[in-house]
Design goal:
It is built from 12 helices and 17 strands. It is α+β, with helices and mostly antiparallel strands.
Length: about 450
């Protein structure tokens, strides 16, 4: 194979210019040397996928394999008084049950260790698992769930993130506050600039919880060998995080845990953290047999992470031309029952909440709160889609109230090369205006107020 040629260009920043990378590599402008640019490329796994030859976890099986199911909470918020699995254990085909008291370290989470593998003292949303069974068939495991008796003491619940902010709201993780992450970015003098504005626009935007809706549900298989080494096959893609979580929850050294990522049938951020894996591992150890488990579609909706719902308040002051003089933003993210990736999501949303616009006076404050709802977590965009919906809707409102073209308002305020972000970052290679103009031409934008 002929070696690809590269052209190396040395550049030095001019005096006073922000530092850029000194060396840029550019592929030689020879189509033969750039086979993937401007051409159709065939995915290497496309033919096996179409022919049905790719092995997903549903295609994997082992001798004497058992099947697991998890009993979910009957309440969004309640204390667990008693869990009785004796009738389930006596059923034909049931090989083992599992409750919270049998889990070595019953907590996990990517940022905060606030989520139990199985709830022991308290359930915080309807998706919490309280017990699990392993049986010789999926039907036998499902039937056994109906024989597990759980006594609850229902507790007041909170479902609205704004209500969760209040001091007298039910505490999801008592006695701590429902607020567990807060961000603030301030630049300039917002109040002074708002007072001087020709027009002040104040609006609230809300977004809803969104399910990833991947075709393949969460699933895994756990198997122990004679040397007490654990192998887990899982639909999760982040195998090293899975192994670290398993090591902590099972109180095992990592060199005794092997995680195999199977062909993943869709993720979009929703298969980032453990669900069934520790439960299957403990049931497999208890029975001495491989154990497989897969969530039902209903369980996917009630027990796995979703996109965060946001409540977003935007206040902007503009001059007569539509130039933004000041903007004040307040974000409240509904984290659901557990933190998951909310710290990261809220941070990104906070930083991006000003939009791709030059704003000299800016203030954003944001909070993440616990509620007794399905937990929210990683989803493509990590907080960016929510604030994008808000600030672009807000720009349309500003244009409409001024009687101006929405494109004109955006071009007037958009970032340019060398603009400063709200965090003080010098932006380079900015093409917002060029992109807006090109898109308007492509779509046949006629201009004028909307």
């Amino acid at each position: 194979m002929r070696e690809k040629k590269r052209v190396v260009t040395e550049t030095k920043p001019a005096q006073g210019e922000s530092m850029r990378p000194a060396t840029f590599l550019k592929m030689a402008e020879d189509p033969a040397q750039t086979p993937g640019v401007g051409r159709r490329v065939t995915r290497p796994d496309s033919l096996p996928q179409v022919l049905g030859k790719v092995k997903f976890i549903e295609d994997l099986a082992f001798a004497e394999m058992l099947y697991a199911r998890v009993l979910r909470s009957a309440h969004p918020h309640a204390r667990i008084l008693r869990v009785d699995t004796s009738e389930a254990e006596a059923m034909p085909g049931v090989m083992a049950t599992l409750t919270a008291k049998e889990i070595p370290v019953n907590s996990f989470g990517p940022h905060r260790q606030d989520q139990p593998i199985l709830a022991g003292e308290k359930v915080r949303h309807m998706g919490d698992g309280v017990a699990a069974v392993a049986a010789v068939s999926e039907q036998a495991a499902a039937d056994a769930l109906g024989k597990i008796k759980v006594e609850y003491e229902p507790l007041p619940a909170v479902f609205d993130p704004l209500e969760a902010l209040k001091e007298n709201a039910p505490k999801v993780h008592e006695p701590g506050s429902n607020v567990y992450t807060r961000w603030r970015i301030e630049k300039g003098d917002v109040q002074k600039a708002l007072a001087q504005a020709h027009l002040v626009v104040e609006e609230r935007y809300t977004t809803q919880m969104v399910e990833h809706s991947y075709l393949e549900p969460h699933a895994a298989i756990a198997l122990w060998d004679a040397g007490q080494r654990l192998t887990v096959w899982s639909t999760l893609g982040r195998i090293f995080l899975v192994r670290a979580d398993l090591g902590r929850v099972l109180n095992m050294p990592l060199n005794k845990i092997r995680v195999v990522s199977t062909q993943v049938g869709g993720s979009f951020g929703g298969k980032n953290e453990i669900t069934l894996e520790p439960i299957l591992a403990l049931l497999a150890k208890k029975t001495g047999k491989p154990v497989k488990g897969a969530l039902t579609r209903e369980e996917e909706f009630i027990s796995t992470t979703k996109r965060h719902p946001f409540v977003m308040d935007y206040v902007s002051g503009v001059d007569q031309s539509g130039r933004i003089l000041a903007r004040k933003v307040r974000l409240v993210a509904d984290g659901g029952a557990y933190a998951s990736w909310t710290d990261t999501t809220l941070g990104k949303a906070t930083i991006l909440s000003s939009g791709p616009y030059k704003i000299e006076n800016f203030l954003v404050e944001s909070w993440a709160v616990y509620t007794n709802k399905t937990m929210t977590g990683a989803f493509r965009g990590f907080g960016a889609p929510q604030v994008c919906f808000a600030y672009e809707s807000h720009m349309d409102s500003i244009a409409r109230r001024l009687g101006k073209d929405p494109l004109e308002i955006r071009l007037l305020n958009a970032f340019e090369d060398g603009s400063l972000s709200t965090t003080g970052q010098v932006l380079q290679s900015v093409t917002v205006k060029e992109t807006l103009v090109a898109a308007a031409e492509r779509f046949g934008w006629k201009g004028g107020p909307r």
